Structures are given as C-alpha cells and as structure tokens.
Amino acid sequence: MNAPGDTDRLYRMLLQIGAALIMFAPVLMFAAREIPATILIIVSLLLITSAVRRRRIGAIMHDLGSGMRMPGMLLLTALGGLMLLSLTWSPSVARAASHLLHFAGAIVLAIIAIALAIRLRPRFETLPLGLALALAASLVAIDMWLSGALRDALFLSTDAFRLNRATVAIMLFLPLATAMLAAERRVTLLVWLWCLAIAAVFLSTSYSAKLALIVTMLVLPLSLALPRIMHRVTMIALPVTVLAMPWIASIANSLVPARIHAMLGYGSLTIRGEIWQETVPFVWQKPFFGWGVEASHVLPHLPEVAHLTQVQRDLLSWGHTHNAPLQIWLELGAVGATLTASVLYCGLRALRLLPAALLPHATTTVIAAFAVACVSHGAWQAWWWGLLGLIATAFAMTVASNFPEVLRRTGESGADTTA
C-alpha cells in the first residue's frame, strides 16, 4: 500500500502532466495536426485518474449533475439529440454517425476536463505556457522560412498547409498567455511571444490564423478598455450572427471591398463567398430541420443538384461549407441554428464569472475562434473541438489554480518579474 506522501506525489504529477500536455499542444500539432482530440482524451484520463486517487469522484459527479441541469447544458443536449435524430434523414448516414461521435465525444470530454480542473486545481504555470507557445511559433516560423526543411529533417510531411492548424492553435492560446504573462509582468517574454507569433502567422499559408491575429489585435485592446461592454456586445452579436448567417453568406462577397479580394486572391476569400452563395438556396429547400449531419459533404452528388452547372457543383464539392454557422443551417435547419445560437449565448454569459483581469482575454479568444469557424473548418471536426476543449480547460485551470494568487501577489508587491 502506497504511503500518503507517495499518493500525493503521484496525484500532483498526473495533474502537472495534464497541464503540460495542454501547454505543449501547439508544439505537438507541428508534427501531428489532428492531435488535439487525442490530447484531450489523455488529459481527461489523467484528471479522472487523479480524482480517483484523491477520492473526488463523488464530488465530480455532483458537479457534473448540477451542471447538466443548467440551461446551457440542457440546450446543448437538445442540439445533440437533434443531430442524432437527423441521422434518420441524412444522405450520408455512416459519415454523419462518425462525425457526430467525434463531435459529441470532444464536447463530453471537454466538459469533464473543465469540471475536473475546477475541482482538482492543477497548477497552470505562466512561464511554461509562454515558453511552449514561443517554441511552437519558432518552429512554424523557422520551418516556413526554410520551405519545410525542418520538417523534412524530422521525416514529416513538408506540405505547407499541414502547419495551418498549429498556427491557428498558437493564435487561440495567445490571449490566455498574454493575460498570464502580463499579470506576472514578464514583459520581455510577452513581447518576444507576440513577435514570434506574428512571424509564424505571416510566414504560414493559413489565412484563418491571419484572420485570428487581426481579430485579436483589434478586439483585445477594446476588451481591455471596455471589458464588460465588449462582453455584453459579444454575448448578443455572436448568436445573432449565427441566426443571420444565410443572409450574410448570400452577400458576403459584395460586403468585401474589391481591393481586399484582389489582395487576398480568389482561392482564399472570393471562392468562399461563392461557395456560400451556392449553398444558401439549399438551406431554404429544407429550412426547419435541414438535410442532416454531414449532408454538405455529399450535397453535389444528390439528385437535387442535377440542374446546376458544373461550375456550381464544383463550388459545392469542397467537403463542407467552410462556414460552421452556415453548415449548421444547411444540415440542421433553423431549429439547429436556434439551438446553437442559444448554447453560444449561455456559454458567453457564463464568462462573466471569470476574474475581471481574465474576462477581456476570454472574450477575445471566443471572438477569434468564432471568426475562424465562420471561414474555415468543418462544423463537426474532432480536432477543432478538441482544440477548443483544451483551451477552455486551460482557462479553467488558470482560474482554479494560481491566477487569482498571481494577481494578488503582483498587485501587492509591485515587483518586476520580467523574464
């Protein structure tokens, strides 16, 4: 039988391994872009094992049970039920079931990880997070500068697009790292991190990461200056955007100045607007419950599109709509979009419980992630929800462990802790 000291050491080690895996997720994505979902599974198992070792399972189950009765969780459950029901009319049942399983699994694991992080209070340290993100940004920037030579030396694929997701991950972790480094006044590391992140983003081929960077640079100063107002505006604006997406998508290209279209090129911006324009008419063909999960993947092969030209069918053949709210409208209809908007509202409203110093950074992270979701990845991709789950767990770990203590300590001492 283990001595109490051995049990405590094992407990702390498991928690710190879990925290470290989250911190180094962007670094690991440099080699394996699909890995966030796997990391989320491992982190959840580590936290569950820690809870078992500390005999906290009863308390965790109580927390989860209480959370399930909250409006946001009930709405999320209803959305999952609608997705499950849509398998009965989806034109691609096997693919739909697979994506539903991946999406639901990532969401459930994220909820469990967040609840465990709040209860177990692992230490989420500032310096390791800052250094891990700096390392990830350095790897991306150096490899892109060397045209893939670094990955080639590591026997990895040298396709430039394979670093896009790692670059997006760096940008979505950046606001949290900024909050923590600023709280500890590690100014030098903070400046270097931002410089490296900007270099990685602009050297990469990821326009999603570039969008996230622009959004972060615009929104973060406003959120710092007007934290509560920006939070309230976001709480309304994002759900409304989900509900209005079919109308926004139908005129998206005309909303962007011609100079921007020319600067970004047809293949990055203009084609997305054209994909959305071709998708919107099919939203209105089944406006209430949609075509079923993953219908966007097989839409160009359905009899209902036989009347379209080859150019139109080609625009619908990119795997999904590259716009998550629009994909939800297409596949789950107005009911699914309303549930999604309601879940988003409840989630954003819950951010008000964060420490005041962390709220602007959380708001900025949500807006940046939403912007990426509106122009890029499929709505149900496991890696994407795994990444968002890791970031949410990182915020939970920060709040539950050392962030309030750091704010109190630096506020009282005024000491310079520049890295």
Explain the overall architecture.
It is globular, with a radius of gyration of 22 Å. Helix 11 (207-225) packs antiparallel against helix 19 (359-373). The chain starts with a helix and ends in a 6-residue tail after the last helix. The model is unreliable at 411-419 (pLDDT under 50). The chain has 21 helices and no strands. The protein is mainly alpha-helical and 419 residues long.
Describe the structure using short key phrases.
single chain, 419 residues, mainly alpha, 21 helices, 75% helix, 0% strand, globular, disordered C terminus
| Major beta-sheet overview | none
Instruction: Report the end-to-end length measured between terminal Cα atoms.
Output: 43 Å
Beta percentage is under 5%
Q: What does the overall shape look like?
A: globular
**Number of helical elements:** 21
Taking pLDDT < 50 over at least 5 consecutive residues as the criterion, the unreliable ranges are 411-419
Q: What's the β-strand tally?
A: 0
Taken in chain order, the helices and strands follow as: HHHHHHHHHHHHHHHHHHHHH
Give the oligomer, counting copies of the same chain as homo and different chains as hetero: single chain
Helix content: over 70%
Instruction: Determine the structural class based on helices, strands and strand pairing.
Output: mainly alpha
Overall average pLDDT: 90
Q: Please give the radius of gyration in angstroms.
A: 22 Å
